[in-house]
């Protein structure tokens, strides 16, 4: 059977896990994974999660932190923003980044 590529949109949500008030990592990568799993399980949203290092400048200078990258394909934009808002609130980070890219994908 021939597998065909479908067109879709890939969203990536980047979340640094430093608390915006203390500039400390109050959650571990495993804590974040559990939070994300709970959020996505509620609506059966498929996702991938990568842990990486990020750096940025804030009002106290430059810092690095553990940065979580959530990848989701096949969900509408409003739902992505809701997920981002919930993660931002729970982690208590001052900002998150969401990117949107047209992709072609195929499950084989």
Describe the structure.
It is built from two helices and four strands. It has 108 residues and is an alpha+beta fold. The longest helix has 15 residues, at 77-91. The chain has helices at 29-42, 77-91, and strands at 6-16, 48-58, 61-73, 97-105. The termini are close together. A hairpin with a 2-residue loop joins strand 2 (48-58) and strand 3 (61-73). A four-stranded antiparallel beta sheet has the order 2-3-1-4, with helices on one face. 27% of the residues lie in helices and 41% in strands. Helix 1 runs antiparallel to helix 2.
For this entry, give a set of tags.
single chain; 4-stranded antiparallel beta sheet; 108 residues; alpha+beta; 27% helix
Walk me through the topology.
Blueprint: E1 6-16, H1 29-42, E2 48-58, E3 61-73, H2 77-91, E4 97-105
Antiparallel strand pairs: 1-3, 1-4, 2-3
What is the helix/strand order?
EHEEHE
Overall geometry: elongated
* Range of helix content: 25-40%
Order of strands side by side in the largest beta sheet?
2-3-1-4
Report the major sheet: 4 strands, antiparallel
First-to-last CA distance: 10 Å
Please mark out the parts with pLDDT under 50 across 5 or more consecutive residues, or reply none.
Answer: none
Q: Can you count the beta strands?
A: 4
What is the structural class? alpha+beta
Estimated share of beta-strand residues: 35-45%
Instruction: Please count the helical segments.
Output: 2
Report mean pLDDT, rounded to a whole number.
95
The whole-angstrom Rg is: 15 Å
């Amino acid at each position: 059977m021939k597998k065909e590529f479908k067109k879709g949109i890939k969203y990536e949500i980047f979340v640094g896990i430093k608390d915006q008030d203390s500039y400390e990592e109050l959650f571990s990568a495993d804590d974040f994974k559990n939070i994300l799993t709970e959020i996505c399980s509620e609506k059966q949203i498929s996702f991938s999660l990568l842990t990486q290092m990020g750096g940025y400048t804030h009002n106290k200078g430059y810092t690095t932190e553990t940065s979580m990258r959530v990848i989701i394909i096949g969900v509408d934009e409003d739902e992505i923003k809701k997920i981002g808002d919930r993660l931002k609130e729970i982690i208590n980070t001052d900002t998150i980044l969401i990117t949107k890219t047209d992709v072609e994908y195929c499950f084989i």
